[in-house]
Amino acid sequence: MGITVVNRKEDLNLDGSVKILDAGMGKTLAMKGVDVPNTIWSANALLAAPDAVLEIHNENIEAGADIITTNSYGVIFSDLEKEGLEDRFDELNLLAGEIAQQASNASERKILVAGSLPPQNGSYRPDRVLDETTLISLYQRQMKLLEPCVDFFLFETMSSINEAQAALRAANAFSVPVMIGLTLHDREPNRLRSGEPLTDCIELIRAFAPLGVLANCCPPERISDAMASLAGSGALYVGGFGNAFPCVPEDWLLDGSKSTDGALQMRDDLSPSFYADFALNWIDQGANIVGGCCGTVAQHT
Questions:
Q1: Could you tell me if residue 241 is inside a domain?
Q2: Neighbour-count burial of 168, counting CB atoms closer than 10 A to its CB (0-12 exposed, 13-18 middle, 19+ buried)
Q3: 72 near 100, Cβ under 8 Å?
């Protein structure tokens, strides 16, 4: 599968009009019978079932998504190293980008590809955020691999101001537009998982002038609470993509080595129609990009 370099300068159609971001990947992979081990769930899908990844991208496009996200969230060096797969880091990130671009190119509509860039040492864990120098190095390595295939980078699930700042500083080395997703506290409105005020983070982000500022991988109720603050960020795109988890324990790790099994329980009330009500509320508050995160499927799009 060859790479066709994206022309980001023309015809991206990023004019502030409402865009639909795709839904999560992990739950649908499991529903299709793909093994999704906790540590390397998305990497394993690329190794064992790349056709399923492509199929899920296509399903999201068919459901109405304007933007699909590379299946690179779980393709980070630290997780691959745990499984002895660190030597396949480059290959798998390139493959994630190529598969998403293949789905985009096959569509009759203009479909944008977002390059997913996750936390580098565990999601939802501000206490595990690495130092800025290390983070910048890790992010830039992954970004160089995804860059040829994406229309913009999407930093996801940033849990603290320091993590968000390091991510945006890493992006300064690239000409590719950037959106950033902040994960909010499950119970305390308008705070990051670090406990820091969302408004403080937005003030810092404003100086970097990203293309988009979103809330992600947190309850949709918290995104509703935060939308007014997000809309005040000055970014061309603001919005959210929530998860379907009731609550994430503060000491949670994906490999299940702390208080919980790595696989979090799902809410049973977050039907596609109920989730759509949240998304419409966000749009009413000024959002112009909405989608779904962990636990959502194409029907939530």
A1: yes
A2: buried
A3: no
Residue type, 109: R
Per DSSP, helices labelled H in 192-296 are 198-206, 220-231, 272-284
Q: What is the pLDDT of residues 135-189, one digit of tens each?
A: 999 999 999 999 999 999 999 999 999 999 999 999 999 999 999 999 999 999 9
Cα 40 from chain centroid (whole Å): 16
Distance CA 121, CA 86 (A): 15
**Residue 75 carries which side chain, given as an amino acid letter?**
V
* Alpha-carbon separation of residue 18 from 201, 291, 300 (angstroms): 24, 11, 16
- CA torsion 185→190→191→197, rounded to 10°? 180
Residues 76, 92: Cα–Cα separation, whole Å:
10
- Find tokens 């295939």 and name the residue: 149
From CA 146, how far away is CA 200, in angstroms rounded?
A: 30
**Number of domains observed in the structure of the chain:** 1
* CA–CA separation, 244 and 273 (whole Å): 13
Q: Is residue 168 part of a domain?
A: yes
